[in-house]
Amino acid sequence: MQPIDPTHSLSAQTRRTFLGSLAGGAAAFSLGGIALSDLLAREARAADGGVDAANPLAPRAPHFAARAKSVIYIHLAGSPSQLELLDYKPALAKFNGTPCPDEYLKGEKFAFIKGHPTLLAPQHAFSRAGKAGLWTSELLPHFRTIEDEVCVINTMTTDQFNHAPAQLLLHTGESRFGAASFGSWVGYGLGSETRDLPAFVVLVSGDKTPDAGKSVWGSGFLPSVYQGVQCRASGDPVLYVKDPDGMLRETRRATIDAIADLGRAGFARHGDRETESRIAQYELAYRMQMAVPEAMDLARESKATLEEYGAQAGTPSLANSCLLARRLVERGVRFVQLYDWGWDGHGTGPNDDLLTQLPRKCREMDQPVAALIRDLRRRGLLDETLVIWGGEFGRTPVAEFRDGNKNFLGRDHHPHAFTMWMAGGGVKAGTVYGETDELGYRIARDPVRVKDFQATVLHLLGLDHLRLGYMHAGLNHRLTGVQGDAKIVRGLLA
Amino acid sequence: MLGATALALLASAGMHARHEATAPTRGVGAGGGGGAGAGAEDRPVDFAREVLPILASNCFRCHGGVREMAGLNLADHARVTTPLKSGRTAVVAGDSDASELLARIATDDANRRMPPEGTPLSPAEVRVIERWIQDGAAWGTHWSFLPRSEPAAPAVDRAAWIARPLDRFVLARLEAAGLAPAPEADRATLARRVALDLTGIPPDAALREAFLSDARPDAYERFVDALLASPAYGERFARVWMDLGRYADTQGYEKDNRRDIWAWRDWVIEALNADMPYDQFAVRMLAGDMIEGSTDADRLATAFHRNTLTNTEGGTDNEEFRMAAVFDRVSTTWQSFLGVTFQCVQCHGHPYDPFSHREYFSFLAYLNQTEDADRDDDHPRLEVERAGVKTSAPILRELAAESRRKTHLLARGSLTSPQEEVSPAVPAALGAVRGDVQPADRLGMARWVAGADNPLFARVAANRAWELLFGRGIVETSEDFGVMGSGASDQALLDHLAGVLVARGFSTKALLREIVLSATYRQSSVASAEALARDPDNRLWSRAPRVRLEAEQIRDTALAVSGLLSRKMGGPPVMPPQPDGVWQVVYSGDAWKTSEGEDRYRRAIYTFLRRSSPYPSFIAFDATSRETCTVRRVRTNTPLAALVMLNDPVYLEAAQALAVSVRMHSDDAVAVRAMLERALGRAAHDGDVARLVTMVASERARYAGRDDVARTLAGRAAEGSTDLARDAALVAAANVILNLDEFLTKS
After folding, report:
1. What is the pLDDT of residue B55?
2. pLDDT at B160 > cutoff 50
3. Do B23 and A19 touch (CB under 8 A)?
4. Is B250 helix (H, G, I), strand (E, B) or coil?
5. Window B:110-139, CB contacts with A under 8 Å
6. Contacts of B619 in chain A (CB under 8 A)
């Protein structure tokens, strides 16, 4: 067993409550690093509840054998049209332009559509791909080459039809602010495999942060040590990771040493072990100053690799994010969350329509995502890495034509059915799960609710979603909700 | 991955409620200790103190207000003693043999035994339940929902130590544990501690010097009174109300557009500085618009509940988000004033505290009659002038009589499932309302919340004061005074303090003064070996705590000791430097525009807070994005916080200014000593000085002949510099000092 540094620490004052809040029972503790005589006894006590408060990111055993060790979640913020990409509905072409049947619209509430909408044909051609012959859009030529690795879910369903609440539901389990994000839960449940990098890294491309803001990678009610750390393509890769201008690297080393020496002298006077923990944080910060830029430096990749992804160092792009995600997972990062903004498609202009914007975004996305799957496979990482792809909801089978504008084609927000896919880490490859109705409006069989999807991902990571809980504001909060009625979707598992 | 030990722990940790619910510190009432085996058999079992904790930690998860499995809700007295679906009765008073509860917890049959998973109840716990039933199964109320009584002052040996009445309570427990209090902290330490606690910044040099050289016996009292009278007091405690009131400068949700509501922040600072009695402070925030002869200031106070989010995204249902705001107001009212988690009652009965689903909506009815309705313009607003700036802030305004809303119970809290109409009423669990008449309206509700009869109002406030000064409340879970909270580590002490608050006419300053003048507060933070052994977590207050400063205190203190801090008060929020690209605003061209002049150096409370993208260096120190009410920030210690202190330009600038202030001393030791003393507010240790002098020498040598790099690091210290390498080295030393554990800590 490797000794583990006391890398992250809750202050002693919060220790009891923190431990008291732990639900579930992922338990672990670390004994490395700290040289206090009474520490061993105290850590042993801390371990009776679960997470070691002095080192809340120490790696912890899962509830049961895991299929995946890490996650790369590619979120297409704004939500691409499933009806132009992977949920092929020839009936829409047949009934193109006809009014949507009344029975679909009873009680229906759209984000933007007013009046009685008409059906809209798929705007791009489909053909079969992969060994299983999955219907796939011509907009995804690269995806076709990795389709045998992928499990497509055409029957995702949500109850939120606006971007921010839908993103929050998907990533935090609640449509309102304040809950903990997916990566935070996983860090809380499993700890970190790396000492030099954050456990939960977020990469953002597409010029904007997701609609719900940084809450989608916040730690909510969980201690903030579990929040996602945004790594950026320009400026400091992690905020404040770079030494101030004019600070020589040797001088930074000298300052860290002086901070530690004065801290130890203080510790000898007052005996507060939080001081020791803080010294360790500074040492880790110093290591991160080296490790983060190294991990984020695409120039270290071969020309061939850069070309395969279509990556180009320096500017944020989904291609760069995909390649960085592989580099981070290789280095032990548990959860890499990608957000790519710009997938909304109402058809109000050339920047959100089905004929110009969607193909443009697909060109940016298709090649690097396929390259990522191939690259992970080549490096032997795909079996232990779960790759997830999708938006926060779907698009309507009817056209939007906002304010009567018919110059561009678009679809409104559609919570009832949408497509996501997963690859690697224990999922059934080369299959399609579930089926929507003839118009792609509602689900015909095998719906996957957001909480079922979350329970299934946790299951692949070796975590029982019912046992991964945290007491807050009087409730045992879980990613999959307080009701405890989420189901693991067995049909997605290999 | 961990080895066998951890796996064994995992296996044994189990997954039953006892592990998730039992805080190791559970202490109920002054006696602490949750009951089982605690008492002799000759006295009756105390339900609230002994039985309730057992039920709460073992049973409520399935048989509480949420799941009510088999129709049994053990949190509801009536349901416990009536026959269940099965025909059996959980508790038959006086007849333990006929009580299914006892049968199921005592059986050896693993298929029938409750709880079904995890460890069975201990024989002592089973015996407590048996005796309770046998004695007649008298129901009781959780301590915090019962009226306060003035606790009897306990006897102590070392009475000479006592400075204020509260010390007697602390001392009695210390003596019972065989411990002596820590000696009094030295004056310099005390000066920094109490100034940070009361004003959020170290003391001004003149005030500090006056105190240190004041030989009068009441020197410390005078110092404390000067701090309490300082306008910085209001700025420090307003931070707490910004968290509780979820104040931000944007509307939240997707667009997160700007919202002008800073006038409310200034109202809070003014009210705190004027020491507005806490009950009136609460009533004004909840219903200042409705008090007779209300002024603009009273109406502005109600912006407290207009800090709720507004959703301006297309296609949203305004009624849905209006209700979301009302739900939030209910939850925030209970969290901030009464320390009860009420949010969960929105969807079902409270899982463990005695509040029903219906009572939730009856209470909500008081807050459901205001004009605001999730409109983009945050109507209605009030024109006011604050800090010489005209602005308008959203406020609460009661609907006219003819347009009042009906309030329905909503099944599962869902707008689409309205049930019967409810009339306004306050929950019964906190005692009968005066004259058996329910408060008529929002103002009546506010007066009930803040009434001297309310068992929670003063306790929660007293606990908050203690938490802010000692780093941990007497009820550690300051957000939950209910059955599943941590309980009070010393209920007598808490009730004494609550009594002081009420007796002093709800003067917050008087309560704070009482505490900071106590011998308990004035102890040194140095732990004796004995105290470390017998009170390792300082549960007995055997010494002063060492607590890391809050995000706001860290910024303000760094700016203050380096001489950069602006003391300008109030007005629109400011934008001190933050890294480029942090704001990526989706739908508008809004941008972070760095403030000029002294607005770069204002106190943290004036920093613009965009909910979807809060100021990053504050978040690293556990500030929140203020989407909902935050009662307690959980302190964390991470490398990201270290990176902020090391590299954030704000702190580098402070280091440069600190270096400038000492570089006229040509002797490195003198310069370093001066920086340490300014930053830490105490005489420097020779060893620390020597260590930093060594570093200054080595770094000066490193920068020698590299003037360009040295100039860059030295920043403002480079202006007029005669020795760039030394100035750069002094900046590096100042950077060290601002990163010292002691600088970041109150001790």
Report:
1. 87
2. yes
3. yes
4. strand
5. none
6. 224, 227
Contact between B35 and B44 (Cβ < 8 Å): no
Residue A143: DSSP 8-state:
H
DSSP SS3 for B652: helix
pLDDT digits (tens, 9 = 90+) for B674-720: 999 999 999 999 999 999 999 999 999 999 999 999 999 999 989 88
Q: Closest Cα to residue B485, out of B338, B287, B278?
A: B338
- The contacts of residue A86 (CB under 8 Å, 6+ apart) are A134, A135, A136, A137, A140, A152, A154, A419, A421
Residues of B (342-371) whose Cβ lies below 8 Å from A: 343-344, 350-353
- For residue A448, list its beta bridge partners: A156
- Residue B104: its H or E element: helix B100-106
In the structure encoding, which two tokens stand for residue A82, read together? 């499933």
d(C-alpha B538, C-alpha B559), whole Å: 31
- pLDDT above 90: percentage of residues in chain B: 68
Distance CA A379, CA B186 (A): 62
Instruction: pLDDT band for B289, please (50, 70, 90 cuts).
Output: very high
Q: Which of B35-49, B119-133, B261-275 has the highest mean pLDDT?
A: B261-275
pLDDT digits (tens, 9 = 90+) for A323-364: 999 999 999 999 999 999 999 999 988 889 999 999 999 999
CB distance from B27 to chain A under 8 Å?
no
pLDDT 10s digits, B85-95: 888 899 998 99
Tokens 């109600």 found at: B302
Beta bridge partners, A435, equal: A445
Cα–chain center distance at B544: 19
If one counts every other C-beta atom within 10 angstroms of the C-beta of residue A81, the result is: 29
Torsions phi, psi of B740, nearest 5?
Answer: -70, 140
The residue ranges of chain A whose pLDDT is under 70 are 1-54, 473-474
Q: Is the CB of residue B611 less than 8 Å away from at least one CB of chain A?
A: yes
Residue B14 has pLDDT above 60, yes or no: no
Cα dihedral B21→B22→B24→B25 (10° resolution): 90
Q: Is residue B139 over pLDDT 90?
A: no
B126 CB-side CA count, 13 A? 17
Judge whether residue B39 has pLDDT over 70. no
Query: What is the distance between the alpha carbons of residues A394 and A420, in angstroms, rounded to a whole number?
Result: 10
**Residue type for position B451:** G
- Could you tell me which residues come within 8 angstroms of residue B137 by beta carbon, excluding any fewer than 6 positions away? B80, B81, B91, B92, B93, B94
Read off the tokens for B195: 């100034």
The DSSP element (H or E) to which A435 belongs, if any, is: strand A435-436
Rounded CA-CA distance B697/B199 in Å is 37
Coil, strand or helix at B535:
coil
- The verdict on A413 touching B (C-beta cutoff 8 Å) is yes
Residues 103-122 of A with CB under 8 A from B: 109-112
With CA atoms as reference, report the closest residue to B670 among B690, B700, B697, B695.
B690
**Can you read off the two tokens belonging to residue B119?**
């460890």
